[in-house]
Design brief:
Low-confidence stretches: none
Structural class: alpha/beta
Strand content: 25-35%
Number of helices: 9
Oligomer: single chain
Strand order of the largest sheet: 1-7-6-4-5
Radius of gyration: 19 Å
Distance between the termini: 12 Å
Number of domains: 2
Bound molecules: coenzyme A
CATH superfamily of the largest domain: Thiolase/Chalcone synthase
């Protein structure tokens, strides 16, 4: 029937940064962060934990679960906004590390929605070329692009990677459909500039730096409405009602966004997988990390619908339905 996830894997850096640790860095408190975001800790990459290295380990774990070896992989896609280099892509470094000699490799950027958008690419790719095995990874080290003096943003983000191996199967499972959206008019509410331009004609008069910039309140309001709309439209188009969803795996941005989304949809909270308290917002890595944890905890049941949704810079957002 479609693109099936054969294996999942994830990799988190060793170092844990708690809210109390952040109290030493900016003027904030454990209580403020917990009540406003639901985050208790996040992981921060150290030496030897560049984005591609986290991505490689996540991929190895997914391949091990799938029973697939590197030489069998045909395509590697990494969703990221924090690769250690702009060129070559993070995916090419992963290919080299894995020894996936047959694969071609490239990155995609849809910010926090990158992995969700990647699922759609893989689904469509596999429908037209059924013999392929594809590695889809979401990986970030946003700690390298965080302004550690800005308490509005530095408390939110964390590092990590998650991966899936996908293949076409003629079975009644796999990706059912996606509903993806973008609105570039809202770019400035959540953005990250490139390095200053060396072409004076293209340089900004007042370059704001290369850190994450965010209008938190605006993002909050838009994120809830956007994800709700994408989910409602997708489910009605596919004639699937919320009661038949086995588990919802949302992008782990913030507990208040998730609580509001869950209550507006009317989905029982026990059907929503949440790990934002441990890892914060890991952008494109958040969904595959959550998917891997849910999978390894036995929360993904054969034949059930999994509803995945995301929201991120762009703005980009959407929802995807998978039959497990
Ligand atoms: N610690 C303590 N105080 C803080 C703080 C921190 N880390 N960050 C901000 N504050 C202060 C502000 O300076 C402000 O103080 P003031 O009233 O004296 O000016 C006050 O807290 C309220 O700030 P505000 O930005 O209005 O807070 P908020 O209730 O909107 O919460 C966010 C801030 C970021 C938690 C919230 O807007 C949010 O979750 N937005 C979505 C962010 C997100 O998920 N982005 C990624 C999407 S993929």
């Amino acid at each position: 029937m479609g693109a099936v996830i054969l294996g999942t894997g994830s990799c988190l850096p060793d170092r844990v940064l708690s809210n109390h640790d952040l109290e030493e860095i900016v003027e904030t408190s454990d209580e403020w962060i917990r009540t406003r975001t639901g985050i208790n800790t996040r992981r921060i990459a150290g030496k030897g934990e560049e984005t591609y290295r986290l991505a490689t380990v996540a991929a190895q774990r997914a391949m091990e679960m799938a029973g697939v070896i590197a030489e069998e992989i045909d395509l590697i896609i990494v969703a990221t906004i924090s690769s250690h280099m702009l060129m070559p892509s993070c995916a090419c470094f992963v290919q080299k590390e894995l020894g996936a000699v047959k694969a071609f490799a490239y990155d995609i950027n849809a910010a926090c929605s990158g992995f969700l958008f990647g699922i759609d690419i893989v689904d469509k790719y596999l429908r037209s070329d059924r013999e392929k095995k594809i590695l889809l990874i979401g990986a970030e080290t946003l700690s390298s692009r965080t302004n550690w003096e800005d308490r509005n943003t530095c408390i939110l983000f964390g590092d990590g990677a998650g991966a899936v191996v996908m293949e076409y199967r003629d079975e009644a499972r796999g990706v059912v459909a996606s509903n993806l959206c973008s609105d570039g008019n809202l770019w400035s509410l959540l953005c990250m500039h490139n390095a200053p331009s060396s072409n004076p004609d293209l340089s900004l008069a007042d370059h704001p730096g290369t850190h994450i910039l965010m209008e938190g309140r605006e993002v909050f309001k838009y994120a809830v409405k956007a994800m709700e709309g994408a989910i409602v439209d997708l489910l009605s188009r596919e004639k699937v009602d919320l009661d038949s969803i086995g588990l919802m795996i949302p992008h782990q941005a913030n507990i208040r966004i998730l609580n509001k989304l869950v209550s507006r949809l009317g989905i029982p909270p026990e059907k929503v997988f949440i790990n934002v308290q441990k890892y914060g917002n890991t952008s494109a890595a958040s969904i595959p990390i959550a998917l891997d944890e849910a999978n390894r905890e036995g929360k993904l049941k054969a034949d059930e619908f999994i509803l995945v949704c995301s929201f991120g810079g762009g703005f980009t957002w959407g929802a995807t339905l998978v039959r497990w």
